[in-house]
Amino acid sequence: MNRGFDTYQLAEEHEALRAAVRSLSEKEIAPHAAEVDEQSRFPIEAKKALVKAGFHAAHIPEDYAGEGADSIATCIVIEEVARVCASSSLIPAVNKLGTMPILLGASDELKRTVLPSVANGEAMVSYALSEREAGSDTASMRTRARLDGDHWVLNGTKCWITNAGESSWYTVMAVTDPDAARKADGISAFLVHADDPGFEVGAKERKLGIKGSPTCEIHFSDCAIPENRIIGEPGTGLRTALRALDHTRPTIGAQAVGIAQGALDAAVAYVRERRQFGRPVSDFQGVQFMLADMAMSIEAARHMVYVAAARAERGEDDLVFVSAAAKCFASDVAMRVTTDAVQLFGGAGYTTDFPVERMMRDAKITQIYEGTNQIQRMVMAKSLLRG
Ligand SMILES: Cc1cc2nc3c(=O)[nH]c(=O)nc-3n(C[C@H](O)[C@H](O)[C@H](O)COP(=O)(O)OP(=O)(O)OC[C@H]3O[C@@H](n4cnc5c(N)ncnc54)[C@H](O)[C@@H]3O)c2cc1C
């Protein structure tokens, strides 16, 4: 046997990281997950624990005072936190989403302004692309930014912004050239700080799941920011924002895998204990086949997510297909697995006495955000047909 054969095997450091995040999540995050959901409150205990351990934004490179975790390591952190609390997993996930356009396109000066404060846990970053009338059709956004002397002045409203109000920085895409021949070429990306004049966070959405992660509108009313807060060149913002998604869709896949694993683990424990017809329900083949299907699809999803993350880490050119596929497949798996987990708990699964109903509600968002799964399928088909 060739024990040194390491294809399809994570590095020892990855497995050690998984053990560390799992232990922290079970001890310090899981005990608060139900209450966070019930009270729709930000998981402050999780934030403190993640910051203390350096898991809140582990992807920030060492050059910017971060941990320098690779893309698979970042997925493992998100997966293991999501296994116990999907809302809490949005702390590392959205820190990656918000900073990815900066890492891909910002000047070194701007990176140094923002990234160290995210790395040390003082600040979080949100990503603001969507608008009420520009969801899937991102290029139709209406938020405007115009240069006035040495300041950009922003006006408009972004919606559905995850962790709004908790974040200090916002990566905001806005139209700078409304006359551009292609709408996408008239959009630029900016960094806005919560203290900038004219910036305001709106009311919290009342949601089906991920209730511990605030989702709000953010408003810009003549919001003036220094000229050097633009990310890259004018007109490159939408491309940078979409390129960022190629790197972060695997992290949503990881979140989905984690939620699904949490539901499977809970279901396995329950069916072993629950007795009907004089024996544990786990004795019934109908139940066993469900468990096998759940575990099989989670395993497949996990592999797709890690492969997509590894390809992103290697800086491969065309991540579009693989990252859309990983997010789409894993989130569909999460929805199916969590629904089956509720089924395996019977009536108990339908109550808040057990975590699986929360996991089912939390899983749904992974099919919607960072592009709905219809949009992922469009992206994959486009990539196939391009040849
Ligand atoms: C909880 C939550 C958190 C979010 N966080 C963020 C965030 O942090 N930052 C951010 O910028 N955005 C965020 N979003 C926004 C999210 O990315 C959008 O909701 C999503 O992209 C879909 O846009 P929409 O809601 O406008 O749906 P629509 O675009 O209106 O879509 C409605 C339906 O039509 C389908 N559809 C649309 N176009 C097509 C097409 N061409 N072909 C086939 N079907 C199509 C969609 O799949 C969907 O089923 C968040 C959303 C939610 C709910």
Could you explain how this protein is built, in words?
The protein is built from 10 helices and 10 strands. It folds into 3 domains: about 10-120, Orthogonal Bundle (Butyryl-Coa Dehydrogenase, subunit A, domain 1), CATH 1.10.540.10; about 125-235, Butyryl-CoA Dehydrogenase, subunit A, domain 2 (Beta Barrel), CATH 2.40.110.10; about 240-385, Butyryl-CoA Dehydrogenase, subunit A, domain 3 (Up-down Bundle), CATH 1.20.140. α1 packs antiparallel against α2 and α7 (about 285-315) runs antiparallel to α8. The protein is globular, with a radius of gyration of 21 Å. It is α+β, with helices and mostly antiparallel strands and about 375 residues long. The site of flavin-adenine dinucleotide (FAD) has 22 residues, from β1, β3 and α10. This is Acyl-CoA dehydrogenase. InterPro entries: Acyl-CoA_DH_CS, Acyl-CoA_Oxase/DH_mid-dom, Acyl-CoA_Oxase/DH_mid-dom_sf, AcylCo_DH-like_C, AcylCo_DH/oxidase_C, AcylCoA_DH/ox_N, AcylCoA_DH/ox_N_sf, AcylCoA_DH/oxidase_NM_dom_sf. It comes from Actinoalloteichus caeruleus DSM 43889.
Please sum up the structure shown.
With 387 residues, the chain is an alpha+beta fold. The protein is built from 10 helices and 10 strands.
